[in-house]
Write a structure and sequence with these properties.
- With 186 residues, the protein is α/β, with parallel strands linked by helices.
- It has a domain at 28-139 and 178-182: Restriction endonuclease-like alpha-beta roll domain (Restriction endonuclease-like alpha-beta roll fold, Roll).
- It is 22% helix and 38% strand.
- It contains four helices and eleven strands; from the N terminus they run ββαβββαβαβαββββ.
- The strands form two sheets. It has a six-stranded mixed β-sheet with strand order 3-4-5-6-7-11. It has a five-stranded mixed β-sheet with strand order 2-1-8-9-10, covered by helices on one side.
- α1 packs across α4.
- The chain is globular, with a radius of gyration of 16 Å.
- InterPro entries: Restrct_endonuc-II-like (IPR011335), YaeQ (IPR009822), YaeQ_sf (IPR038590).
Length: 186
Protein backbone atom coordinates (compact mmCIF):
# COMPACT_ATOMS: atom_id res chain seq x y z
CA UNK A 1 0.00 0.00 0.00
CA UNK A 2 1.32 3.42 -0.97
CA UNK A 3 2.07 5.98 1.70
CA UNK A 4 -0.25 8.99 1.40
CA UNK A 5 0.71 12.63 1.40
CA UNK A 6 0.99 14.44 4.73
CA UNK A 7 -1.12 17.58 5.00
CA UNK A 8 0.58 20.76 6.21
CA UNK A 9 -1.13 24.09 6.76
CA UNK A 10 0.63 27.43 6.40
CA UNK A 11 -0.76 30.85 7.20
CA UNK A 12 1.47 33.35 5.43
CA UNK A 13 1.50 37.10 5.92
CA UNK A 14 3.24 38.72 2.97
CA UNK A 15 4.68 42.22 2.83
CA UNK A 16 6.49 42.48 -0.51
CA UNK A 17 7.58 46.08 -0.68
CA UNK A 18 9.47 45.52 -3.93
CA UNK A 19 6.25 44.58 -5.78
CA UNK A 20 3.71 46.39 -3.53
CA UNK A 21 1.99 43.09 -2.70
CA UNK A 22 0.53 42.67 0.76
CA UNK A 23 -1.83 40.11 2.16
CA UNK A 24 -2.52 36.98 4.13
CA UNK A 25 -2.78 33.59 2.47
CA UNK A 26 -3.76 30.22 3.88
CA UNK A 27 -2.10 27.29 2.11
CA UNK A 28 -2.87 23.61 2.43
CA UNK A 29 0.16 21.65 1.27
CA UNK A 30 -0.05 17.97 0.40
CA UNK A 31 3.53 16.93 1.11
CA UNK A 32 4.39 13.75 -0.76
CA UNK A 33 6.38 11.07 1.13
CA UNK A 34 9.41 11.71 -1.11
CA UNK A 35 9.35 15.47 -0.51
CA UNK A 36 11.71 16.92 2.08
CA UNK A 37 10.97 19.77 4.49
CA UNK A 38 13.42 21.85 2.47
CA UNK A 39 11.56 21.37 -0.83
CA UNK A 40 8.19 22.02 0.80
CA UNK A 41 9.44 25.27 2.35
CA UNK A 42 10.94 26.38 -0.98
CA UNK A 43 7.48 25.80 -2.50
CA UNK A 44 5.99 28.08 0.16
CA UNK A 45 8.72 30.67 -0.43
CA UNK A 46 8.13 30.57 -4.20
CA UNK A 47 4.43 31.13 -3.54
CA UNK A 48 5.16 34.16 -1.37
CA UNK A 49 7.55 35.64 -3.95
CA UNK A 50 5.17 35.21 -6.89
CA UNK A 51 1.64 35.62 -5.55
CA UNK A 52 -0.09 38.32 -7.60
CA UNK A 53 -1.48 41.45 -5.96
CA UNK A 54 -4.99 40.42 -7.03
CA UNK A 55 -6.78 37.49 -8.65
CA UNK A 56 -8.01 39.38 -11.72
CA UNK A 57 -5.85 37.23 -14.02
CA UNK A 58 -6.17 34.05 -11.95
CA UNK A 59 -4.76 32.75 -8.70
CA UNK A 60 -1.34 31.32 -7.99
CA UNK A 61 -1.87 27.74 -6.85
CA UNK A 62 0.13 24.84 -5.54
CA UNK A 63 -0.19 22.02 -8.05
CA UNK A 64 0.11 18.28 -7.51
CA UNK A 65 3.87 18.82 -7.73
CA UNK A 66 5.80 15.58 -7.32
CA UNK A 67 2.57 13.59 -7.69
CA UNK A 68 2.19 14.68 -11.34
CA UNK A 69 5.31 15.04 -13.49
CA UNK A 70 3.42 17.04 -16.13
CA UNK A 71 2.60 19.87 -13.73
CA UNK A 72 4.88 22.48 -12.19
CA UNK A 73 5.18 22.98 -8.44
CA UNK A 74 3.06 26.12 -8.66
CA UNK A 75 1.19 27.80 -11.43
CA UNK A 76 -1.02 30.73 -12.17
CA UNK A 77 -3.76 30.02 -14.70
CA UNK A 78 -6.27 32.49 -16.02
CA UNK A 79 -10.01 31.86 -16.12
CA UNK A 80 -9.71 30.08 -19.49
CA UNK A 81 -7.11 27.65 -18.12
CA UNK A 82 -4.16 29.19 -19.97
CA UNK A 83 -0.96 29.12 -17.93
CA UNK A 84 0.31 32.57 -17.06
CA UNK A 85 3.19 31.56 -14.78
CA UNK A 86 4.86 28.14 -14.48
CA UNK A 87 7.08 27.73 -11.41
CA UNK A 88 9.42 24.77 -10.96
CA UNK A 89 11.82 23.89 -8.17
CA UNK A 90 15.17 22.16 -8.12
CA UNK A 91 17.02 21.35 -11.31
CA UNK A 92 14.62 20.52 -14.16
CA UNK A 93 16.13 19.54 -17.49
CA UNK A 94 16.11 21.89 -20.47
CA UNK A 95 13.43 19.90 -22.34
CA UNK A 96 10.98 20.43 -19.49
CA UNK A 97 11.79 24.14 -19.29
CA UNK A 98 11.45 24.67 -23.05
CA UNK A 99 8.13 22.81 -23.04
CA UNK A 100 6.92 24.96 -20.14
CA UNK A 101 8.16 28.08 -21.95
CA UNK A 102 5.98 27.15 -24.92
CA UNK A 103 2.91 26.75 -22.68
CA UNK A 104 3.23 29.72 -20.28
CA UNK A 105 3.66 33.48 -20.42
CA UNK A 106 6.39 33.27 -17.76
CA UNK A 107 8.54 30.46 -16.37
CA UNK A 108 10.49 30.61 -13.11
CA UNK A 109 12.83 28.11 -11.51
CA UNK A 110 14.07 28.14 -7.91
CA UNK A 111 17.16 25.99 -7.38
CA UNK A 112 18.26 25.37 -3.81
CA UNK A 113 21.01 22.74 -3.83
CA UNK A 114 24.75 23.23 -3.61
CA UNK A 115 24.96 21.83 -7.16
CA UNK A 116 22.64 24.48 -8.67
CA UNK A 117 25.50 26.50 -10.28
CA UNK A 118 26.85 23.31 -11.92
CA UNK A 119 23.38 22.35 -13.20
CA UNK A 120 22.86 25.86 -14.58
CA UNK A 121 26.27 25.98 -16.27
CA UNK A 122 25.40 22.74 -18.11
CA UNK A 123 22.04 23.90 -19.48
CA UNK A 124 22.31 27.69 -19.73
CA UNK A 125 23.39 27.72 -23.38
CA UNK A 126 20.47 25.43 -24.32
CA UNK A 127 17.95 27.94 -22.98
CA UNK A 128 18.94 31.03 -24.97
CA UNK A 129 15.65 30.82 -26.88
CA UNK A 130 13.63 31.07 -23.65
CA UNK A 131 13.42 34.85 -23.12
CA UNK A 132 10.60 34.63 -20.53
CA UNK A 133 12.54 32.29 -18.23
CA UNK A 134 13.94 33.39 -14.88
CA UNK A 135 16.22 31.18 -12.80
CA UNK A 136 16.98 31.83 -9.15
CA UNK A 137 19.36 30.13 -6.77
CA UNK A 138 18.45 30.05 -3.09
CA UNK A 139 21.79 29.48 -1.32
CA UNK A 140 21.78 25.95 0.12
CA UNK A 141 22.62 27.09 3.66
CA UNK A 142 19.65 29.45 3.59
CA UNK A 143 17.25 26.84 2.19
CA UNK A 144 18.36 24.38 4.86
CA UNK A 145 17.72 27.01 7.54
CA UNK A 146 14.30 27.61 6.01
CA UNK A 147 13.58 23.87 6.26
CA UNK A 148 14.05 24.07 10.03
CA UNK A 149 10.96 26.30 10.22
CA UNK A 150 8.73 23.53 8.82
CA UNK A 151 5.87 22.31 11.00
CA UNK A 152 2.51 20.66 10.33
CA UNK A 153 0.81 23.96 11.14
CA UNK A 154 2.81 27.14 10.47
CA UNK A 155 2.39 30.86 10.78
CA UNK A 156 4.98 32.64 8.66
CA UNK A 157 5.70 36.28 7.97
CA UNK A 158 7.50 36.94 4.68
CA UNK A 159 8.88 40.41 4.09
CA UNK A 160 10.61 41.37 0.85
CA UNK A 161 12.57 44.60 0.64
CA UNK A 162 15.34 45.64 -1.74
CA UNK A 163 15.73 42.05 -3.00
CA UNK A 164 16.22 40.63 0.50
CA UNK A 165 13.70 38.19 1.91
CA UNK A 166 13.01 37.89 5.62
CA UNK A 167 11.05 34.89 6.87
CA UNK A 168 9.99 34.70 10.47
CA UNK A 169 7.86 32.69 12.87
CA UNK A 170 7.03 33.41 16.50
CA UNK A 171 10.25 31.64 17.52
CA UNK A 172 12.77 32.25 14.75
CA UNK A 173 13.69 34.37 11.74
CA UNK A 174 16.12 34.23 8.85
CA UNK A 175 17.26 36.21 5.86
CA UNK A 176 17.30 34.77 2.36
CA UNK A 177 19.24 36.38 -0.48
CA UNK A 178 18.35 34.74 -3.80
CA UNK A 179 20.85 34.93 -6.63
CA UNK A 180 19.53 35.68 -10.14
CA UNK A 181 21.10 33.21 -12.58
CA UNK A 182 18.84 34.34 -15.45
CA UNK A 183 16.35 37.15 -15.67
CA UNK A 184 13.64 37.45 -18.33
CA UNK A 185 14.51 39.56 -21.34
CA UNK A 186 12.52 42.77 -21.63
Amino acid sequence: MAIKATIHKAQIQIADMDRNVYGEHNLTIARQPSETDERMMIRILAFALNVPADDLRGRLELSKGLADADEPELWQRDLTGDILHWIDLGQPDERRLLKAHGRAERVSVYGYAYSTPIWWANIESKLTRAPRLSVWQIPAEQSQSLAKLAQRSMQLQVTVQDGGIYVSTAEDSLEINPIALKRPQE
